[in-house]
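Appendix C reproduces, verbatim, an entry submitted by the partner laboratory led by Prof. M.T., so that reviewers can inspect both the input and the predicted structure.
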Amino acid sequence: MSLLKWRITRGTFNICFFQSYERMNVADALMSRSYKDGERVIEQGAQADGMYFVESGEVRITIMGGKDGGEKEVNLIQSGGYFGELALVTHKPRAANAYAVGDIKLACKLTGLGWKVPINIT
């Protein structure tokens, strides 16, 4: 079992919105993928296809609409963090872009493989 999967199943990874059995399901379904420096992971406005856990490296989160009309950095997610869950919860298009900072490794779960997000916001 990878360190990331171990952290998710033990609840030490910061995904407190999952119950223990849900964490096991998520951990079992994760696939690792590498991204090169500057590569876009998700695009603002796109349909949600999954959520991502940062195994190693950093991910820069930006939104369109900076002062010059370009992108504005709003967050930097480090190893141990996650992103992409908001669009899955709200069923709306992606609210931000995500880019690799250096070479990174992410674990992701794509929704098209039968996984449903166990979160309801009322």
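Residues 117-122 have pLDDT under 50 and may be disordered. Additional entries are available on request from the coordinating office.
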